[in-house]
Amino acid sequence: IAATQPSTNWHLKENAREHHTSKFSNEELIVRRGQTFTITLNGTERPEQNLIFIAETGPKPSKATRTLATFDISSSVSKEGWSAVQQSSSSNSVSISISSPQNAVIGRYRLSVQSGSSSPASLGTFVLLFNPWSSGDDVFMPNKAECEEYVLEEFGIIFAGNKNHISSFGWNFGQFQGDILNICLSIMDRSLYYRQDPVTDVSHRHDPRYLGRVLSAMVNGNDDQGVVLGNWSGKYEGGKNPSSWTGSGEILQSWKKSGFKPVKYGQCWVFAAVLTTVLRCLGIPTRTITNFSSAHDADGNLRVDEFYDADGNHLERGSDSVWNFHVWNESWFTRNDLGPSYSGWQVLDATPQEQSGGIYQCGPASRHAVKEGDVELDYDVPFVFAEVNADCMYWNYDSATGKKTLIFSKSTEIGDSISTKAVGRDDRVDVTSDYKYEEGSAKERDVFKKARKKLGLGDKFDPTAPKLEEIEQTPDISGKFKVAGSLEVGKDLNLLLVLENLKSDAKTVKVNMTAWSTLYTRRRINEIWKDSISVTLAPKEEKQFPIKIKYPEYQQQLTTDKAIQVTALCHVEDGIQVLVQRNIALDNPDIDIQVLGEAKVNKEVVVEVTFTNPINAEVKDCVLQVEGSDLLQGILELRIPPLKASEKSSTKFKLIPSEVGPKHLLVNFSCDRFADIKTFKMVNVIN
């Protein structure tokens, strides 16, 4: 006789509270593995009869792949597998406490119950996630404040600019909003790994190593119709400029709405921010990391070669490059494959730079392995090691003869001020010492040599490089660019070229100078200015040469990355060439947010955003974009009338906060002269 269909009380509120899943807005049970949750079955006849539960996930559930579990009611929670313990019962209902193993496959499960000889009755579905609060989980994070930040926090700060001038902007990860969990689950089901072999793929979803690698491939659109399409051309027609996004929600929703076509366009921080959202949503502690002067070593020789012509123009030769900054991820989990010292933070990078195993994916690379130069360990440690450690070689290239001459090499240039957001505060924390020993120290050079040796690069440079004695030639003069005055879009750029004669006889120098607007990857886009001067320097003399680049000269040429590269190639008579270079990051003018009054749950509160046009011309096409998890639904877009020179605009709008606690409001202002002026404000919402 078929049993009557029991109805299920999932105790959503109580279970969510116990499992740190209250922030999800779904009407479905969402719990974490290795921890009990309680359900009540109503309408079960003779509940004392032996009930058998069936939990299954994936397309072809089986016990062999650990995607199917059948378990009856026992007297205590099982440490190994799934188990059910009866809590209480009445004449027609029974409360059961169910627990999953600490290494269970994560994802959406179907739960059914069988009573006696009747066929199984479906109880519904629930979602199982990683559990960083549980000591037996691979992602266990002992520090509760870190769990709060790296799993539950929906706001982040991403660091950008360059090593001389670090800037930052807010990002709305929004991992608990709306449909994001379902989108994250469908990302897993659209990977190449799943398409090739769904059964095996699902059976590996207990392992954060595996999922981290798969998701690093899926967040970029290369190979697999993943979430975001990269574009580093400086031209973004047919999509959004990467610097215009302020959160992951809009990107993930667009991907789903378009029928899973890659969203246009992203650059490194977009890939890293979206991967943070997906991994935090699934319960893997994750953060974004910014590496300044980041090497992209395409040929794997732990060396980056940069080429310049005689005029000092930076040439795009070879596939190596140095980016002003690069953003990747760290996720926290154990490395049972490598041993305990390699557990903890693991580097994942979803930016499509180099293929790994035939597709654009990177990591997990143990951060400890990177620091110790253990480049033979899985996965992609040599690439990450080079990003923070590669040596830089600067060459003069003559296109007529094809001859290249080494100008100088530098081993302390790459991997500077490696940064992440502080736990529980909106501050920057420097983690450079977690990636490498102190630059220039004997230990740091030893690790570098060890890595070269393990990669089969030996102790010496490769044969195409110049002989060491050619490198050791000392220059006759030294030079540097100094910044005089502020670095702000809309203002003139004032620099000083400082040249010093290091010798005790006079030197004649011809200096060829150029300034180009670049992307943050230092890719040259437009020439802004060039000049050349001839200089005589008396013995040991230092001279300063002022350089002024007026706003109208660079305004049309600037990219939205607001980066300028200034170069002076100094040809010293009867001496070796000296290259002086500076990458400049300009700041946008300020924008201000004020919350007028107290922010209370479900009550309107007015916010005022003010901006003063700093330039001597009208700005038009002004748009304000506002977003913030738990402060407003989706994105608010406001058009603002044109602003005359020096005019101040004030825009007011209303918010209705939906949750108590510290929330972040993100604002992005754009007009025809200024792109993506961003700021954020913490709003403390009270009851």
UniProtKB/TrEMBL annotation:
Cofactor note: Binds 1 Ca(2+) ion per subunit.
Highest rank taxon of the organism: Eukaryota
Active site positions: C268, H326, D349
SMART domains in alphabetical order: TGc (SM00460)
Binding site for Ca(2+): N389, D391, E439, E444
Pfam families named among the record's database cross-references: Transglut_C, Transglut_core, Transglut_N
PROSITE patterns: TRANSGLUTAMINASES (PS00547)
GO molecular function, one term: protein-glutamine gamma-glutamyltransferase activity
E.C. designation(s): 2.3.2.13
Keyword terms: Acyltransferase, Calcium, Metal-binding, Transferase
Homology family: Belongs to the transglutaminase superfamily. Transglutaminase family.
UniProt-recorded name of the protein: protein-glutamine gamma-glutamyltransferase
Organism for this UniProt entry: Certhia brachydactyla
Phylogenetic placement of the source organism: Eukaryota, Metazoa, Chordata, Craniata, Vertebrata
Gene for this chain: Tgm3
